[in-house]
Write a structure and sequence with these properties.
With 705 residues, the protein is of the alpha/beta class. Helix content is 25%, strand content 23%. The strands form seven sheets. It has an eight-stranded mixed β-sheet with strand order 10-7-5-4-3-2-1-11. A six-stranded mixed β-sheet has the order 12-19-18-17-13-16, with helices on both faces. The chain has a four-stranded mixed β-sheet with strand order 9-8-6-20, with no helix packed on it. Strand 17, helix 15 and strand 18 (470-475) form a beta-alpha-beta unit. Helix 5 packs parallel to helix 7. It is globular, with a radius of gyration of 25 Å. Bound molecules: beta-D-glucopyranose. Beta-D-glucopyranose (BGC) is lined by residues 46, 64, 119, 166, 245-246, 370. Beta-D-glucopyranose binds next to loops.
Length: 705
């Protein structure tokens, strides 16, 4: 029988109580505050949906998140698992194949840890650089974010488990996330945040989608008929199931009728909206029985199609040594060389290096909240940050200092922790090169200032004054202000680089790895450049509802800077290499209805490297939310002196605007500029092409339901 037929058979066989069981999820954590501590829950896990043993339906064991198997809030004993770099670093690789391998690795650890649902695949757009969860997501561009998160999802699900793309939708800030009403025009939403989801869903085929805490245009996302029934299930033909973010259910009837399929995160009686309440609503005719059957059919069909039921998860051994290679490869490819005034790579014969700050003697930083993974060896730096969730600050035991000493065995590499500016400056003055590590912990449920905490800017200034050959290594969750960039010789964005972050950073600095990461988000020069210099609702009392208006619409990130004619400090797409590349022979043509672009890339330098070619598209007559959009990209690896031809297709939605009245995408007839670029600000060549008018349905790209 097909999954569809088996799901139908289940719907016929199950009792009402059994159906209600499958649509209700509990917190998995075995703590007093959880009134539902079921014996079958996995220790310290995000969630459990109980099974129905009578028909062989397994429990759904749910774990976070996109960088590996997490341990839920302050809940020792911690599970130690391989930690991938944060999502924003994975996006910085611009390499979907690598994201897929990374996903396959963490998915296998989920499976071996007894989880069959991974709450992974965060694809909220980076609208506000201060959003505390930017580290979990794929940056500011819908094509890049959707492609990279889609690839990660594919990898996770290759383990015959479900991955949950989240948080649908427009959950782009953490301040007031349970009460904030996001106001955005429908067309703008379709061309920005929703497009990122649409692409991730098409490319990753996730079994489930998590609806978010916030309201969208006045209605909670998890009871939002437009978001769930009309766009996701209707236009895009999504056949999987929708689960709430933990506790994001508010109304029995509205949740059910708007298209929610599973409520989650129940930890006390007042949390749940379904169970007996849904039974009563069905009995009273407020929710059709067919709706509950549809929820159960969707969940069953998905678990059958993905393999969860036929290939039950079992606790197994994890090959940590092999997985360390996967996370290190990801980190090495996503670290971004931001600036290099002839200081990197460190010369093989360098004799004295000063390493300063950021706990680089023992560890690299990780992001906090539900996505918190404890890397092998546990938290390497204890006692920092908030005592309670989403704290504390957790560091992965992986020392950049030790790894650098391994890379440069002949050099004398000193260490100072950076707490004393005079000592740090003295160490820097005594060295040929000073390397300062600066960190900013970010986490779920709060937003952050773009100024580095603990006066670290002062540390950088002091070190740079003492030694102009200063390199700054940043471990941050998103873009921050870099007021000293002019005064340092080099800068490297390492984001949160995961459990092999130490060697990955050291190998980029030493040149063992030629950096090839590119920014998935613009870095502002100053807060005033942002659509919202301050995160909305910061001064609103806790739990008091407020609005955030996304008046910038689809002009997110580089599109905003272009539209406002602002020069960012570092543009989207920026990333340097230790070799040089030439991009030439740009051609654009129509193949059938599709825009195809080809070009040639040559490695004109002296060492092998990887290059990200970026194609931007732009209507000559204007008419978009901003002058241009990323239309396609391609990463290629080239030996020194080698060259290759590349061809990419531009997704038609990236050439269109969304027309609400006609319920579809519209490409206006006319001339378009196609540019080959190395960042949103650096086009190397442009050509023009004339496109005919074209209409596409709202769900263009979706598998036919
Ligand atoms: C987060 C989700 C997470 C869930 C379960 C929520 O607080 O927003 O991303 O999957 O908790 O841990």
């Amino acid at each position: 029988m097909s999954a569809e037929q088996r799901a139908d058979a289940l719907v016929s066989a199950l009792t009402l109580d059994e159906k209600l069981t499958l649509v209700t999820g509990y917190f998995g954590v075995q703590k007093d505050w959880n009134q539902y501590r079921f014996p079958e829950a996995r220790a310290q896990s995000a969630g459990l949906v109980r099974g129905v043993a009578r028909v062989g339906f397994p429990p759904q064991w749910q774990t976070d998140a996109g960088s590996g198997v997490a341990t839920q809030g302050e809940a020792p004993p911690e599970l130690e698992r391989t930690l991938l770099p944060s999502g924003i670093l994975t996006a910085s690789t611009w390499n979907p194949a690598l994201a897929e391998r990374a996903g396959a690795m963490i998915g296998s650890e989920a499976r071996s840890s007894g989880f069959n649902v991974m709450l992974a695949g965060g694809v909220n757009l980076l609208r506000d650089p201060g959003n505390g969860r930017n580290f979990e997501y794929g940056g500011e561009d819908p094509l890049l974010a959707g492609t990279m998160v889609g690839a990660l999802t594919r990898g996770i699900q290759s383990n015959r488990i479900v991955s949950t793309v989240k948080h649908y939708a427009l959950n782009d800030q953490e301040t007031g996330r349970n009460v904030v009403n996001v106001k955005i025009d429908e067309a703008a939403a379709r061309m920005s945040d929703l497009l990122a989801f649409q692409l991730a869903i098409e490319q990753g085929d996730p079994g489930s989608i998590m609806c978010s805490y916030n309201l969208v245009n006045g209605v909670y996302a998890c009871q939002n008929e437009w978001l769930l029934n009309q766009v996701l299930k209707g236009d895009w033909g999504f056949r999987g199931y929708v689960m709430t973010d933990w506790g994001a259910q508010h109304d029995t009837v509205q949740n059910a009728n708007a298209g929610l399929d599973q409520e989650t995160g129940v930890r006390e009686k007042s949390d749940y909206q379904w169970l007996d309440k849904l039974a009563a609503a069905i009995k009273g005719g407020k929710v059709p029985q067919a709706r509950l059957d549809d929820m159960v059919r969707r969940i069953s069909r998905t678990l059958l199609e993905k393999g969860v039921i036929d290939a039950p998860v079992e606790l197994g051994k994890i090959d940590f040594a092999e997985h360390a290679k996967v996370t290190q490869a990801a980190a090495e490819e996503g670290i971004v060389l931001l600036k290099n005034a002839n200081v990197l790579p460190l010369a093989a014969n360098v004799q004295r290096v000063a390493v300063i700050g950021g706990h680089a003697d023992v560890a690299v930083l990780t992001g906090g909240g539900s996505a918190q993974v404890y890397a092998p060896g546990g938290n390497a730096v204890r006692g920092l940050g908030p005592q309670h969730w989403p704290g504390p600050h957790v560091y992965a035991r992986s020392s950049p200092l030790a790894a650098l000493r391994g890379e440069l065995p002949k050099a004398d590499i000193s260490w100072s922790d950076g707490s004393d500016l005079a000592l740090a400056a003295k160490a820097a003055a005594a060295a040929e090169v000073a390397i300062v590590f600066v960190t900013q912990w970010t986490a779920e449920a709060q937003d952050f200032s773009l100024t580095l905490p603990d006066a670290q800017d002062k540390l950088v200034e002091a070190v740079a004054r003492a030694n102009p050959r200063t390199v700054v290594v940043l471990e941050t969750g998103g873009p921050v202000l870099l007021p000293w960039l002019e005064r340092v010789a080099g800068a490297v964005q390492a984001w949160y680089p995961g459990s092999q972050g130490g060697p990955a950073i050291a190998r980029v600095l030493s040149g063992a790895v030629n950096p090839s990461g590119h920014l998935p988000a613009s870095f502002p020069r100053a807060l005033e450049q942002l659509p919202r210099p301050q995160i909305a609702g910061l001064s609103v009392p806790k739990d008091q509802p407020f609005e955030v208006r996304y008046d910038e619409g689809a002009a997110v990130g580089y599109r905003w800077y272009d539209k406002q004619k602002l020069e960012p400090l570092l543009p989207f797409g920026h990333g340097l290499s230790y070799t040089s590349f030439a991009q030439t022979s740009l051609q654009a043509r129509l193949v059938g209805d599709e825009l195809e672009v080809s070009f040639r890339i040559a490695n004109t330098g002296a060492r092998a490297g990887k290059h990200v070619a970026q194609i931007y598209v732009s209507p000559v007559a204007g008419g978009w939310e901003a002058p241009k959009r990323l239309g396609a990209f391609s990463k290629v690896e080239l030996a020194a002196g080698a060259a290759t031809d590349a061809t990419v297709r531009v997704d038609p939605r990236l050439l269109a605007t969304y027309d609400v009245a006609r319920h579809g995408w519209h490409i206006a007839a006319g001339d378009y500029t196609v540019s080959l670029a190395t960042s949103a600000r650096d086009a190397t060549q442009s050509v023009k092409i004339q496109l005919p008018e074209r209409w596409l349905r709202a769900g263009a790209g979706a598998k036919q339901p």
